[in-house]
Amino acid sequence: RQLFDAAADNFVTRVGQFSPQGVSQTVWAFSKVGLNKHQLLLSAASAARERAASYDPHSLASLAWAFANLDVEHKALLAAICQQTEARARSFDVEPATQLLWA
């Protein structure tokens, strides 16, 4: 638990240095173990909204899945993900598309 607390604090202070894949994988990892770290999720959502166009389909889908898995609804993040999905629907493979549908 201490490791996740330290990782969450580190992420929040350095989120701007994370790649889109790093942001989505970090949130995914917390989601997989069922840890809803509010500040981490807010930081991730903010970073993803600001740079949504630079997120590949898999990163967008993983981020949406992680928020949904934690039962956290962030309307602004979902709107940004939906906008990118609509704009780039043809570039989505089956896996990210099904993750988004589940989320």
Q: What attributes does this structure have?
A:
single chain, 103 residues, mainly alpha, globular, 0% strand
Describe this structure in words.
- With 103 residues, the chain is mainly α.
- It has one domain (2-102).
- It is built from six helices and no strands.
- The chain is globular and about 40 Å long.
List the helices and strands and how they pair.
Elements: H1 2-14, H2 20-32, H3 38-50, H4 57-69, H5 75-87, H6 94-102
Summarize this, please?
The protein is mainly alpha-helical. Helices cover 72% and strands 0% of the residues.
Helix content: over 70%
Report the oligomer: single chain
Number of helices: 6
Structural class based on helices, strands and sheet pairing: mainly alpha
Strand content: under 5%
Overall average pLDDT: 94
Q: What is the succession of H and E elements?
A: HHHHHH
Largest sheet: none
Low-confidence stretches: none
Give the N-terminus to C-terminus distance in angstroms: 26 Å
Number of self-contained structural domains: 1
Radius of gyration, whole Å: 13 Å
- Which word captures the global form? globular
How many β strands by DSSP?
0
Domain RNA-editing substrate-binding complex 6 protein: 2-103
Protein name: RNA-editing substrate-binding complex 6 protein domain-containing protein
InterPro entries: RESC6_dom (IPR058917)
Organism: Coccolithus braarudii
